[in-house]
Write a structure and sequence with these properties.
This protein is mainly α. The protein has one domain: Orthogonal Bundle (Jann2411-like fold). It has helices spanning about 5-20, 35-45, 55-70, 75-90, 115-130, 165-185; strands spanning about 95, 105, 140, 150. A two-stranded antiparallel ribbon has the order 1-2. Strands 3-4 form a two-stranded antiparallel ribbon. β1 (about 95) and β2 form a beta hairpin. α3 (about 55-70) packs antiparallel against α4 (about 75-90). The radius of gyration is 18 Å and the shape is globular. InterPro entries: ABATE, ABATE_dom_sf, Znf_CGNR. Pfam families: ABATE, zf-CGNR. It comes from Streptomyces coacervatus.
Length: about 190
């Protein structure tokens, strides 16, 4: 599956956005205030975003939950329904652009759109490409028992199970190895 630069950026953004949500009551929200949203926008180089407000924060948190439901969707039809709702509500307006030193690419948000509509349109379309390509199962949650972070499995054979093999994957492999050694030692 060919993934263009702007689609990859949108995928990284949507994964990071979903992963800002608290996993439980003990985990803090990764977007606790407008300043955190401003940092998120800056770190992800989200273009054409004006001054942000509490209204923007609330709207982004709302679409964050909708995006999380795409990663939890049991099938492509369910994921497509959520994506269609997100993209339609954003008033998607595809247009070609070549800003900030990048070649021509498509933005799906209307000029002057809110940050939430911007994210819903661009990130929603990036996820839509996966559903259209029959690759919805690549939109996953980490299989580590103490981690439910979202990720996009871009491995060739769709075998990635953990959000990060250096942390979650390695931790589980080491635990399994130690359990086998302990059992063998009797």
């Amino acid at each position: 599956m060919l993934i263009t630069h702007d689609t990859r950026c949108a995928l990284d953004t949507v994964v990071d956005l979903v992963n800002t949500a608290p996993e439980d009551n003990a985990t803090p929200d990764g977007l606790p205030d407008v300043a955190a949203l401003e940092d998120f926008v800056q770190n992800h180089e989200i273009s054409d975003v004006g001054a942000l407000s509490e209204f923007d924060l609330s709207a982004v948190r709302k679409i964050r939950g909708r995006f999380a439901s795409v990663f939890a969707a049991p099938d492509a039809r369910t994921a497509a329904g959520v994506i269609n709702d997100l993209v339609a509500a954003a008033g998607t307006t595809p247009r070609l652009t070549d800003h900030d030193g990048y070649d021509w690419h498509v933005h799906y948000f209307a000029p002057g759109a809110s940050v939430a509509d911007h994210l819903a349109a661009d990130c929603g379309m990036a996820l839509a490409f996966f559903v259209v390509a029959g690759e919805q199962e690549r939109l996953r949650r980490c299989e580590a028992p103490d981690c439910r972070r979202a990720f996009v499995d871009l491995s060739r054979n769709r075998s990635r199970r953990y959000c990060d093999s250096r942390t979650c994957g390695n931790r589980l492999h080491v635990a399994a190895y130690r359990a086998r050694r302990k059992e063998a030692a009797g």
